[in-house]
Amino acid sequence: MFDNPLSADLDHVVEHIGPYCEELRKERIFITGGTGFLGCWLLESFAWANERLGLRAKAVVLTRNLEAFQRKAPHLANRPDIRFHIGDVRNFKFPRGRFSHVIQAATEASAKLNTKDLPLMLETMMFGTARALEFAARCGAQKFLLTSSGAVYGKLPADMTHVSEEYIGALDVPLPQLAYGEGKRVSELVCALRESRDGIKTKIARCFAFVGPYLPLDEHLAIGNFIRDALAGGPIVVKGDGTPYRSYLYAADLAIWLWRILLGGVANRPYNVGSRNPLTIAEVAAAVSRALPGNVPVSIAEKPVPGRPPQRYVPDTSRAESELGLREWIGLEEAIRRTAQWHRKR
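RE: above sequence
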């Protein structure tokens, strides 16, 4: 049997979602975006719960490139309880049969698309969500999860330390660089419209920032870049002035939150998903240095501009905590250590 290096994390996930998984017993679920960061954690935890709880459930995963995923995670790609359906989320051919749950986690959010192909990013989110919802209605699914984003809130006021789901947001739509956030807003609206028409219980997870195994270390994600720098011996390079505030939830906790929102969240009621513990980017770099061996130095490229308020991207997670009993179980420095250890083994 495959010795999964994430076994402790996955035991942690199943401990917190086990009682809620009964509704998945002997069911089929359909997942788009199942080969990305969020998707890999959904599949890892699905497979682990399926074995540990004897659910006898099946998952069908939409992908455009099965060969790439087979190289990335062969232990998942070759499981008998996970099957793959080749297609593009915008126009995929519907697989046959009934599915009880549909998860729409497909999003084009790479730095390359964010600068070179914004129309594709927008189309993938809007048309992909509409297509996944149409499939959910056709296949008889009772519950649908959209992995949305904190980007729907737009630029936050300087005095807002944490953003709640009650904040309406202030996206300046004509700005092309805000296509990602606007695409997520429209996707949420599409979910609300289809729920009122088709009766599907649409659940919305507004995801913020995360750290953990499967997180790319060479993309536009600050904490991933910092871990990469530290593993290479340093220095850890902060490209800006280090003043923006972020927070990071560990991937195993993220998986718990997503499953709990899908299985027990209130329909058409968004939940922020992330850590409520803010750190400046400079403090995040310092946390990576502390968490990993070698006391790697931190280099900050720019000096802060006096009087300029810092940018903030930190969720208020009171709704998820009070309604679903969710919280951050694994702290940031431990999350950094586990992420780095996984990448070393890879």
